[in-house]
Amino acid sequence: MSEKKYEKCIVTQPKVIDQFDAHVPGKYQILMDDELVPGADFFVAGGIHKKIHQERPIAYAHYHDQSEVYLYISKPGDAEIEVTLEDETYTATTPCAVYLPKGVRHTYRYLRIDGPLTVVAIVQHGKYIPKK
């Protein structure tokens, strides 16, 4: 049987990496990039977090030359995320989303997670390229 025309667009085996540029060491699941799907113009990483509190941000302050979106999905009120955009800090309660315009320095940390929290990061580019 020959390969279907769009079969390459379906990712069933995400990449799991231990080091993610601009982020603390840990397990990161890459669901879409231009390596998994040649020609893809989105980078998508995600995972599920459980009970946690972080003293320090999960990432150092960085920016991208493309826009980025973070989706934080859980039962209402199950998590609080501290998001810093340039010199402004916000606390968001789930479910919520954060839009990061290109060029805006950002970082975040989990203040509280009381139940499963699905996190999805989407960058409008086929590669994840953080800049200090």
Structure report:
The chain is an all-beta fold and 132 residues long. It has strands at 15-17, 28-32, 43-49, 68-73, 79-85, 88-93, 96-100, 106-113, 117-123. It has a single domain, classed as Jelly Rolls, CATH 2.60.120.10. The chain is 0% helix and 41% strand. It has a 6-stranded antiparallel sheet, with no helix packed on it. Strand 5 (79-85) and strand 6 (88-93) form a beta hairpin. The N and C termini lie far apart (48 Å).
- Helix content, binned percent: under 10%
Order of helices and strands: EEEEEEEEE
Which superfamily, in CATH terms, is the homologous superfamily?
Jelly Rolls
Distinct helical segment count = 0
Give the low-confidence spans: none
Structural class: mainly beta
The N- to C-terminal Cα distance equals: 48 Å
Mean pLDDT over all positions: 91
Mind telling me the CATH class?
Mainly Beta
Neighbour order of strands in the largest sheet: 1-2-3-9-4-7
User: How does the major sheet shape up?
Assistant: 6 strands, antiparallel
Number of beta strands: 9
CATH topology: Jelly Rolls
* Approximate shape: globular
- CATH-defined architecture: Sandwich
How many whole angstroms does the radius of gyration measure? 15 Å
Number of domains: 1
Strand fraction equals 35-45%
Highlighted features:
mainly beta, single chain, 41% strand, Jelly Rolls, 9 strands, 0% helix, six-stranded antiparallel β-sheet, 132 residues, three-stranded antiparallel β-sheet
